[in-house]
């Protein structure tokens, strides 16, 4: 692998040297005091991220517990739903992209699901959600930052509806938490989920959940899936233990990653992600490209990843363009499922510098030129610099 390889996929994201080093420390038992210290550090850092993800780092939760699970966020999503709903319960699942759909498909296996669906990349119509949520709804699921389309969904507006009907509210913050604003109580969130390898800039393989005090009394206890029994995870977490063998190196990497976030400060981290995503958007617009998602009054562009429609010249067959990017030592993502061949996606999650962002833009501009798409890379870089300077 080349020394200067730059990973701009929406997860996994590049790791700091300290995160990588932590994962190669000598092995310890997951029942040792050394491991408990690691889990405690991870929980402290995660409490900070889950509770203070605002520009002024004000506290946004009246209480809750951070958990780390062996297994990525898909497992965390399943743990949340399966602990809060049983097969006769109604789950209202909001779907406007691949990960909203995933949440609905997970819920199908545990409960009775009502989907509120929109085209991928279209904004959520909050009135349609209001029509679907009722006093019979046990759980509402929502994806905050829809990674498949680059759209930031209205978590607060939907949370108000869930709260009005006393439904539990489970939010996938996988590509927002650690990079953008996230407010537990103001947005009525009962369980929030994120992944190690996204905006936390930790390793893939573990997910993090924040279980609010409100959610605790609704957990299924022994009716929950054995491995995902959140009551059990919470009891063990009191003494910084996990019910089963922990992925020790991954917990260590995550502990360092969240300490690095605390060192930067969530306020500055959110502001940096906003500057960098604005730089990407302006650059692609200066190239004459169209941003993929549609917005409404409740939705905005993602601040952690940018999804762009492919221009006509490469629409449907972007392989040559993607190869040119790869040859320049950079990795970005295409569209997922039916959006394959229609869009490309670039992440700014984690610890990127302005130089990384500019290199990403330069690489994409040069790669378009190489496959015969005429874009103005100099104008794109100038547009990006205007944001990065602020
Ligand atoms: N939710 C969102 C918004 C995501 O972006 C992803 C992964 O990209 C997931 C859930 C699922 O994550 P994983 O594949 O790590 O389980």
Set down the secondary structure blueprint.
Layout: E1 6-7, H1 17-22, H2 33-51, E2 64-70, H3 73-84, E3 90-95, H4 98-108, E4 112-117, H5 126-132, E5 137-143, E6 145-146, E7 151-152, H6 155-164, E8 168-172, E9 191-195, E10 206-212, H7 213-216, H8 230-237, H9 248-264, H10 266-286, E11 300-301, E12 305-309, H11 319-327, E13 330-331, E14 333-334, E15 343-347, H12 354-370, H13 377-389
Parallel strand pairs: 1-13, 3-4, 3-5, 5-8, 8-9
Antiparallel strand pairs: 2-10, 6-7, 7-11, 9-10, 12-15, 14-15
The protein binds pyridoxal-5'-phosphate.
Summary keywords:
390 residues, alpha/beta, seven-stranded mixed sheet, three-stranded antiparallel sheet, 13 helices, 17% strand, binds pyridoxal-5'-phosphate
